[in-house]
Write a structure and sequence with these properties.
globular, mainly alpha
């Protein structure tokens, strides 16, 4: 991904790359709208493994695939209505005509709806504590896309902006679908789990059980969309598409170490669930202590990355002083607080205790856009969206930390 960004900017140019970021982010957050089903699997499968309930696991997996498939179809139908009733090019202030943009968004939507179902393999692997395979699938997908991107640049560099957007859309879509389909096949081939048949009434009962917790995850995910994925739209509306490109580049730079760190934190979700159901609270406390020590080193590393950012960006995309210092500082703090928040969120996700996160994310969703607009109007530029997110992550991390200590000490 890190390498792909520099090639995409060179291939598209700043303006068209800003449009690609806008369209891609529109559907990346759509993966969160699965009624929390994938997150329920991460929480419930470790519990079933501890209790040796294979039948229950199979039924949960089957119900999850059916429900997600129905949801993906409904989402695509809703997208059809939007595409043919709204001038999306004008709405997002894009430098292309209405029809090409609408069809481009529709094609991306079709790919992402398919991947909403196929990407569930990652939650299944995480649930059975095979996190490395879930991360491996992402790595293979990114690497395959990168190879096709290099080939496309050499063959289609002279095409206009909209044709390049269509080309990258198909490359990204087909690559992701192929890799997700393979790893879905791999999960069922390498494990004893399978999709099972059960009666309509049994499916409704299992689905209600699945959605009971899933709706809580869904609320959190809806709020996350506003807090973490509204940034490109706000920047595009209040600034320019070129500024969206700058935002994407600096966040991608910090996403490089962040993805590694979040991948390392991912196993804690099912691990906390497993230890909680085994009543191993001392083990959980030891994990907390180890994380706090490592977190200090992570913070130092992210600060060093911030100090070197403009030099790295020059080597990466050949642009001098591309991003203002305030934006870099904002991304540094946001990355640090994101790591802290993710660790504590994984703890509560593993326990299935979601009410605190719902309240925190709900408050953040309410204040994110007004606070960002206030900062835009006071000339904070791109940093407006980053600073508002920083404030939420800091307050939430402190609150979840205090609540986690209360839970563990009470046990």
């Amino acid at each position: 991904m890190f390498l792909s960004v520099s090639f995409l900017i060179a291939f598209f140019g700043d303006k068209t790359y800003g449009v690609w970021v806008l369209i891609l982010s529109m559907f990346q957050w759509s993966l969160f709208f699965d009624f929390g089903i994938s997150n329920v699997l991460k929480t419930k499968i470790p519990e079933f493994v501890v209790k040796n309930e294979t039948k229950n696991t199979n039924e949960y997996i089957t119900a999850s695939y059916i429900s997600t498939g129905i949801l993906a179809l409904l989402m695509f139908l809703a997208l059809l209505f939007v595409v043919f009733s709204v001038n999306l090019s004008q709405f997002f202030n894009l430098p292309f005509e209405e029809k090409p943009v609408n069809y481009l968004i529709l094609i991306n939507g079709a790919f992402f709806c398919l991947n909403l179902v196929l990407s569930m393999n990652k939650s299944l692997f995480i649930g059975i504590n095979k996190n490395h395979i879930a991360e491996q699938s992402s790595t293979v997908s990114q690497f395959s896309f990168f190879l096709f991107l290099i080939l496309s640049i050499s063959l289609f560099d002279q095409e206009d902006g909209i044709r390049k957007l269509y080309l990258i859309t198909f490359l990204n879509g087909f690559t992701t679908i192929a890799i997700n389909a393979y790893y879905t096949y791999l999960f069922f081939k390498k494990t004893s789990y399978k999709v099972v048949l059960f009666e309509k009434n049994d499916f409704i009962a299992k689905n209600k059980e699945l959605l009971k917790m899933g709706l809580k995850f869904m609320l959190i995910q809806c709020f996350m969309v506003i807090v973490f994925f509204s940034d490109p739209y706000l920047i595009s509306h209040y600034l320019l598409p070129e500024e969206t490109a700058k935002y994407d580049v600096i966040t991608k730079l910090f996403q490089f170490p962040l993805l590694i760190i979040l991948s390392a934190l991912a196993p804690f979700w099912p691990l906390f669930s497993k230890k909680f159901h085994e009543h191993d609270f001392e083990g959980i406390k030891k994990l907390f202590a180890k994380f706090h020590l490592v977190f200090l080193l992570i913070t130092l590393g992210i600060i060093v990355l911030g100090l070197l950012s403009n030099q790295i960006l020059f080597l990466w995309i050949r642009k001098i002083d591309y991003v203002p210092v305030l934006v870099i500082a904002s991304v540094v703090f946001m990355t640090v607080f994101r790591v802290l928040f993710t660790f504590y969120a994984n703890f509560f996700n593993g326990l299935g205790k979601l009410n605190s996160q719902i309240i925190l994310m709900g408050i953040a969703a309410l204040i994110k856009i007004p606070l960002s607009v206030f900062l835009f109007e006071n000339n904070f530029g791109i940093a407006s969206v980053l600073l508002s997110t920083c404030l939420f992550l800091l307050i939430s991390s402190v609150f979840l930390f205090l609540q986690s200590k209360t839970i563990l000490n009470g046990k």
